[in-house]
Structure formats: C-alpha cells, structure tokens
Specification:
By secondary structure, the protein is an all-alpha fold. It has two domains: 3-85, Orthogonal Bundle (Rna Polymerase Sigma Factor, Chain: A), CATH 1.10.1740; 94-180, Winged helix-like DNA-binding domain superfamily/Winged helix DNA-binding domain (Arc Repressor Mutant, subunit A, Orthogonal Bundle). It has nine helices and no strands. It has helices at 3-11, 16-37, 40-57, 66-85, 92-101, 111-130, 133-143, 149-156, 160-180. α2 (16-37) packs across α4 (66-85) and α3 packs across α4.
C-alpha cells in the first residue's frame, strides 16, 4: 500500500493503519532500534511505542515522508531508552559511532548551545547535500541508522577499511566545514 493511503488510514483512525505501517516499515524500524539498543526485546518495545507515537500524532501531522517520520520517532525513542539503559552498561557499537563524531560537534550544555542546535542542523543538512551520493549514504547509514562498518561494507560490496577511510575523510571534511561556518570553534 502506498504511503499516502496509509496516512489516510491514520486520519480515518483505522487500526489497519498500524498493520500497514508495520508491514511496510517494520523491518526498517526494528533494525534501527536494534542498532542503537543492541537488544531485540527493547527494540521491539521501541518500535511498538513508535507506532503508538505515529497513531497519536497523525492526525494532525501529515508527514511528507512516512518512513522518515516513523524512523525519527523510533530513533528518538531508542536513544531515550539507550540513555536509560546505559547507566548500567554500554552498547559498544552505538557508543563507538557516537565517539567517532565526538570532536565534530560542540557539547550542548548551555542555552546558547541549544539555540545553536538548529543552526548546527541546517549546517549539517548543507554539508550532507554537498557530499557525493555514496559518501552521504555511508555517513547517514553509520551515524543515523547506526549500522556497523561491516554492514555498510557489505551493502556497498567493499571492504571495511574502505568504509572506515570514507567515514574518516567525511568526518574531517565535516569538522572543517563546521569551523568555516562558525558552528565549531
């Protein structure tokens, strides 16, 4: 079923909307949550909570991109759950992807930093828009979807070292770009 029809089912408050959303984007959502949480049962719970979140927000929202909309909800819930769980333990895969980006972004500890977050978001969008398609996909798969370097290498039919080099170069370019934009000191 096409995304527009699924959204219409949400507007009609039809429970079939959840079934269609789950059938079409369930695997994507589950993988995203599992990549962040490293735990299948927590990931399933996040995905189910995300479906409820979509149910509660559509209507009035009418997302332009249903997979982007539901992925954002899943990711936000998974990160929230991850932070709650990480007080006791660490998820090496997710932590390492965050550590890789650590020196590209300022810490968000002050009000000024919070205001600068939207500026940072716009700068990141411009940066990603200027990358070649392959580098952009690799970057987003690693740092948004939290895919492992090995999974990305398999996706592109290349070696892990090649993906690591692309990510390293892209992070360097990002850091330089953010400094030039005045977002990073």
């Amino acid at each position: 079923m096409d995304d527009g029809k699924i959204i219409e089912l949400f507007f009609e408050r039809s429970e079939q909307a959840i079934e269609e959303l789950s059938g079409k984007y369930g695997p994507l959502c589950l993988r995203l949550a599992e990549n962040i949480l490293g735990n299948g049962s927590d990931a399933e719970e996040c995905v189910n909570d995300a479906y409820l979140g979509v149910w509660n927000s559509v209507p009035p929202a009418r997302p332009d991109s249903l997979p982007g909309y539901v992925s954002r909800i899943v990711r936000n819930l998974a990160v929230k759950r991850y932070r709650s769980n990480s007080a006791a333990k660490r998820n090496r895969s997710y932590d390492s992807s965050l550590d890789e980006l650590g020196d590209c972004f300022p810490s968000g500890d002050s009000v000024e930093d919070e205001i600068g977050a939207s500026e940072l978001s716009r700068a990141l969008d411009r940066f990603l828009g200027g990358l070649d398609r392959r580098s952009r996909i690799i970057f987003v798969r690693r740092y948004w979807h939290s895919d492992s370097v090995g999974d990305i290498a398999a996706m592109f039919r290349t070696g892990k070292h090649n993906v690591s080099v692309i990510l390293s170069r892209t992070r360097r370019k990002l850091k330089k770009y953010l400094k030039e934009e005045g977002v990073l000191q």
